[in-house]
Known about the structure:
The protein is mostly helical and 234 residues long. It is built from ten helices and no strands. α3 (95-108) crosses α7 (167-184) and α6 crosses α7. Keywords: Heme, Iron, Metal-binding, Signal.
Amino acid sequence: MRNLFYKAIILFLVGGFVxxxxxxxxxxxxxxxxxxxxxxxxxxxxxDVFQNGxxxxxxxxxxxxxxxxxxxxxxxxxxxxxAKANLNNPLPYTEDNLNEGKQLYTIYCAVxxxxxxxxxxxxxxxxxxxxVPSYDDAGxxxxxxxxxxxxxxxxNTMGSYAAQTSEEERWKITHYVMNLKNxxxxxxxxxxxxxxxxxxxxxxxxxxxxxxxxxxxxxGEGAVTGEEEEQNNN
Length: 234
Ligand code: HEC
């Protein structure tokens, strides 16, 4: 009986000695490693199973970012003529849209085109840039479509504003430019359209759905509001 008692103590000591070598920071012995090691791929990792050996793929052809709509008219004289004849402003002509258009116009366009659109902006006055037309130039006969097209692609020495502005902002600027043209021509004040959806998003059911989805997704993330996310997308 006593013998058994000593044996138990020795077994306990040896056991304790062996256990003390275990390192809790490392995984234990793995019998079936496949069950432990995931085969998920690291973002941007190199793996032979993929084409080009790259985990990161290019988007499928024809995919577009959320909230961004492709612009169908080509950057050619034909494309411009086509936009000039067929493209219309989807935003209603409201006081808000016009005022926002004015702000954006003052930021981006007035340096060359002048506050009233006569082509006498500060850069034109100082001859830093030549050939800035007045918006009532009869030979150009600008339309909503042609204005949007020129903001999107630029024209000769005028650069493109597609990177600085969203689709909606470009249409607001367009409203303001057409308003300036009308003033230069001495036309009667254009009446505001009321009671219509005030933005492209509101006029487009798909956009409304997206905006709701976005709002649900970001709920709880605190800092990001739906509006900010829309700006990021653009
Ligand atoms: C750096 C100076 C400059 C700025 C800034 C600028 N433009 Fe222009 N814009 C020009 C010049 C120069 C032309 C004449 C281009 C030509 O016909 O070769 C022009 C032409 C135009 C035309 C006439 C296109 C036609 O149908 O012939 C419109 C409309 C126009 N700009 C709108 C805008 C708007 C809107 C903005 C702001 C988003 C803007 N521009 C900013 C220099 C500028």
